[in-house]
Amino acid sequence: MKKLFIPCLIAATIFTSCDSDDDQNTVEEVNVEAPASYEFTREGLSTVSFSGQTTRILMAEETAAAFTDFDNTTEASLQAMFAHVEGANDFEDADLNASDKSVRSKIAASNDYFNANSAESTLIKTTFENYISTQVNEVFPNQNVLAEAGVAGQIADGGSTRYVTGKGLEMNQTFTKGAIGALMTDQMLNHYLGTGVLDEADNRENNDNDITEEGKSYTSMEHKWDEAYGYLFGASPNEASPLATLGDDDSFLNKYLGRVEGDLDFAGIGQEVFDALKLGRAAIVAKNYEVRDAQAAVIRQRISEVIAIRSVFYLQNGKTAIEAGEFGTAFHDLSEGFGFIYSLRFTRNNQSGDSFFTRSEVDGFINDIMNDGPDGLWDVTPATLDAISDAIAAPFSFTVAEAASTN
Length: 407
What we know:
- The chain is mainly alpha-helical.
- The protein has one domain (about 35-405).
- It is built from 16 helices and 6 strands.
- The protein has helices spanning about 50-65, 75-80, 95-100, 110-115, 120-140, 170-190, 195-200, 205-210, 220-235, 255-260, 270-285, 290-325, 325-345, 360-370, 380-395, 400-405; strands at about 10-20, 25-35, 40, 45, 155, 160-165.
- The chain has a two-stranded antiparallel ribbon with strand order 1-2.
- Helix 1 (about 50-65) runs antiparallel to helix 6 (about 170-190), helix 1 (about 50-65) runs parallel beside helix 9 and helix 5 runs antiparallel to helix 6 (about 170-190).
């Protein structure tokens, strides 16, 4: 991997000095060893639980699929799926209908980024609602119209048909790839792996004393870490050993960690993230919070890199398609790139504690893509796509060429 190396060890040792009664310093060795799989028990019962994350992944999958269900989807039905209310008949899956969870409630809802920033959280939620409105009100009526500059409709992408706005955007792609950042990445990096959530109230004291949540086998801290794990592996058929199917288990963060893993330039990133999740969870069991926080830093760096790598990948592939005159392929790639760029806002820089990219920087990238001319992606130039790619790669140690070669 040609990036900043942050060590992620299967076993970690922390040495601490303490004063004895005779004022002599002694050294205490605290070992943390991760299990081979993500399996943790207490008194014979599993302490791992992330069903809420699995539910939201499945809800997001159905919602994204409904974007191109021209025969059955209405704006009202799609908005209802996004903001599901317990008991409403919004999904094909009866268990999802019975759930009190929703996708909208966790969009831009992390403790670290949005607890004191409700205005931006609301703006981001509204952006996703606008993706839905645009799809139904602009694209749906032109399902059988050939798209052209300024006119929504269908456009060929090899053997596939894409449905785009008058500016060339596929709204199902902006929704899906934007959710990777605003839901999965934000909740994982900026909420459940944050000390504000892990150590909230008496979580650390309770974890130190193995005090579990009422009626549960896990402590609150253990559960919070598991919920971060669930946003990456919650749809995996083997949740304890998920790497065998990495990239195939959902349409969101799991899929694109798998895509980056598939490039030789970044091979091993999936294992590194999985190892950090295991070791951090084992550190919680061992009451070793230094090791826990070190693994959270590994995960933040690597997942942030995935978002940036895929942003550059799609910009560069879109550029290649534009140069070849293949606009359907270009619009598909650039719409995915648009969503990943939006997701950059939710990355996490371990040095600053903030996103690698500010809201204004992300907005600037999007404005540059859409404003080379009056018709958005129909007018964007290779030079613009190169400039944005360079800016996205700059805070990391991968190159644009390395990112562009992923699958």
